[in-house]
Amino acid sequence: MKFNAATWGAVLWPAFLGAALADAVLFTLIDPETIMLFGVQSGVSRPSAYTVGFFVFWFIMIIVSLTALWLHADNAEKSKQRPLR
Questions:
Q1: Residue 23 has pLDDT above 60, yes or no
Q2: Which site among 3, 23, 26, 72 is 20 to 30 Å from 82 CA-CA?
Q3: Residue 84 falls within a domain, yes or no?
Q4: What's the CA gap between 13 and 17, in Å, rounded?
Q5: How many independent structural domains does the chain possess?
Q6: Which residues lie below 8 Å from residue 60, measured CB to CB, with a gap of 6+?
Q7: Which residue range forms the structural domain that includes residue 59?
Q8: 56 found inside a domain
């Protein structure tokens, strides 16, 4: 698998869109200022929670996209090695 600009674009852009959607859904349901960690108010502001949440989701989506690309490339290489019948 070659990691050129097109490959990174195919990974990062869908991951960005997925992270934006996941972030929007999560913070529509949960108010970051009401989050409690181990029984203590977190004290995290809304903008920082949105930012951290987005980057966590983006990282997860990048890993998922790279895994899907790796599985697809591995399958394509195996299909090239098999003789056609």
A1: yes
A2: 3
A3: no
A4: 6
A5: 1
A6: 19
A7: 5-77
A8: yes
